[in-house]
Design brief:
Blueprint lengths: L7 E10 L4 E3 H5 L6 H8 L3 E3 L7 H16 L8 E5 L10 H9 L5 E5 L5 H14 L5 E8 L10 H4 L5 E10 L4 E9 L7 E3 L11 H4 L5 E3 L1 H22 L9 E4 L4 H11 L10 H4 L6 H11 L8 E8 L3 E8 L1
Parallel strand pairs: 4-5, 4-6, 11-12
Antiparallel strand pairs: 1-7, 2-3, 6-7, 8-13, 9-10, 12-13
Helix pairs in contact: 3-4, 8-9
This protein binds oxa(dethia)-CoA (UT7).
Length: 331
């Protein structure tokens, strides 16, 4: 029986997991015509984690979810819903969330994936928060996870230097205290889908000759265009989340931006007028992990002792679609 008068949903546990294998900028110099200097200066990335061929996204997700549940002191049987922001699951169907449910033995949960590229975790958070505050569910696992290196074109230096694989998880619970999701907002603009996309494989059709020879399912991006939209949209989304929470930037202890490019983040932070030392970055270690980026950063910051109980965080993401999301969260 779910009690009435739930004011917020609240993150009670965090966890993450990444593949063991590192790919450094020096390694990439052996693969495409690039340099450590270019990648560092243009993106802020020094290394990223890469899944091995037989590694499974489900395994990272399960590990991240177990760590989050341990952190929250929650048992798998207590979980009502598993939501996973991802576009690169192990299977086309069923969803990644379904496999996680089975591995965790969270058999009282329903499970679904949300396809919203780099905004996937905030999209999942939005929906889990809505279900909890509506009284439909009580406890949810909210994950963001990607094996984007599976759909990376290793001959395209414009994109292959950017991405890494990871999973991040949060336990979200009903709460009527001070801590919690103070605002969460999402949006999309399908008119700009052509700037960042990955096609479905269509090699199954004997009628489409080029499908046998093309590398058509790889991720494609007009980096420069995406960059400009990312700065403008992340700024707008940040201001929206602040407004919904009835807060100003001075009320925020930490900005947790999607780790796409250090120059995008610096441009957004400057426009928001938040000091650099209040902007959490771990892009140098993991690259752009898409939907995993924000929960991985939150977990990293907590383990480093930077993110503390009582602090207020502004999280903001932007990705292909375009999609975007933002949230003000008190820990
Ligand atoms: O995750 C959510 C969405 N994604 C993003 O937000 C990513 C947004 N975009 C970006 O982060 C940046 O646009 C990139 C990092 C992808 C590229 O940086 P840029 O400063 O926009 O570079 P550019 O595309 O304008 O390219 C500048 C030059 C070009 O050479 P020319 O034409 O000036 O001779 C590129 O060919 O840099 C060249 N270049 C490279 N050089 C060495 C592109 N990639 C590389 C590379 N190594 N890996």
């Amino acid at each position: 029986m779910i009690e009435k008068a739930i004011v917020h949903s609240r993150i009670t546990g965090l966890g993450s997991a990444v593949p063991e294998q590192k790919l450094t900028n020096a390694d990439l110099e052996q693969i495409v015509d690039t340099s450590d200097e270019w990648i560092t200066a243009r993106t802020g990335i020094k290394e990223r984690r890469i899944a091995r061929f037989d590694d499974s996204l489900t395994d990272y997700c399960t590990k991240a979810a177990q760590r989050a549940m341990e952190d929250a002191h929650v048992e798998p049987s207590e979980i009502d819903a598993i939501l996973v922001g991802t576009i690169s699951g192990d299977y086309r169907f069923p969803s990644t969330a379904i496999f996680i449910q089975s591995k965790l033995r969270a058999m009282n949960a329903f499970a679904l994936d949300i396809s919203a590229t780099c905004s996937g975790w905030l999209y999942a958070l939005f929906h889990a928060d809505a279900m909890i505050t509506a009284g439909k569910i009580r406890k949810a696992l909210v994950l963001g996870a990607e094996n984007l290196t599976r759909i990376t074109d290793w001959e395209d230096r414009n994109t292959c230097v950017l991405f890494g694989d990871a999973a991040g998880a949060a336990v979200l619970e009903a709460s009527n205290g001070e801590q919690g999701i103070l605002s969460v907002d999402i949006g999309s603009n399908g008119d700009l889908a052509h700037l960042l996309y990955g096609r479905s494989e269509n090699a199954g059709s004997p009628l489409i000759e080029e499908s046998f020879h093309s590398r058509g399912n790889f991720l494609r991006m007009s980096g420069n265009e995406v960059f400009k939209h990312a700065v403008r949209t992340m700024l707008r989304a940040s201001l929206k989340a602040l407004k919904l929470a009835d807060m100003k930037i001075d009320d925020i202890d930490w900005l947790f931006p999607h780790q796409a490019n250090i120059r995008i983040v610096e441009a957004v932070a400057k426009r928001l007028r938040i000091p650099r030392e209040q902007v959490f970055m771990n892009i140098h270690k993991y690259g752009n992990t898409s939907a995993a980026s924000i929960p991985l950063a939150l977990d990293d910051a907590r383990r480093e002792g930077k993110l503390k109980s009582g602090q207020t965080v502004l999280a903001v993401a932007f990705g292909g679609g375009f999609t975007w999301g933002s949230a003000v969260i008190r820990f």
